[in-house]
Amino acid sequence: MCGRFAIYSRFTKLGYQLDLDLDLPPRYNVAPSQSIPIIRSAEAGGYEVVDAHWGLIPFWAKDRKIGYSTINARAETVAEKPAFRAAFKQRRCLIPASGLYEWQDTGGARKQPWFITDAAGDGLAFAGLWERWTDPATGELLDSCSIIVGAANDLVRPIHDRLACILPPEHYRDWLALDAPPPLLHSLLEPCPSEWLRAWPVSPAVGNVRNAGPDLVAPLSGA
């Protein structure tokens, strides 16, 4: 799963591909239930960056509590699961990230967190879904999102068996296109090449969401 990530890159390649200015405030410990930036097709054409609640709330949900269990959608079942299938057909998005954290089971009492980032240092785009939900009690509109996760690649597999689906820049627009054919969409959810990424162990401090400094992504001393 993908339960924590960081945002601090310039995202020049992502901005160039979609003609967007992605000057995003740095955040080093992004956690579920927080508001995060997503990129989606705009109604007037082109693309837009908006904030969305991390934890997708289907349009048919009675309350927002379902969002606690929908921070991730499995690539293998995203097209069929009731919570995600409508969004997969019509409301796909990109989620800009500089990297993500995964926890490695080392056999001890505490798992070791690792930071996984792009080799080029320009940032990544996760495959995501978004939904718009209306609170039946108040009429409030809330946009929410989920990160799609699939099998890990060779680099990440020793750390964790799952990895956020990272999209190739040449297919950013394809992922957002409303008329994208399902076979193409599913092909984009395959594990990204290992050479795209770098990884190193980091401080267990990232496990506390109140910790938020750039030191969280620094390699663990002695690693």
TrEMBL record:
It comes from the Bacteria. Its EC number is 3.4.-.-. Keywords: Covalent protein-DNA linkage, DNA damage, DNA-binding, Hydrolase, Lyase, Protease. Belongs to the SOS response-associated peptidase family. PANTHER family: ABASIC SITE PROCESSING PROTEIN HMCES (PTHR13604:SF0), DC12-RELATED (PTHR13604). This is Abasic site processing protein. It comes from Crenobacter cavernae.
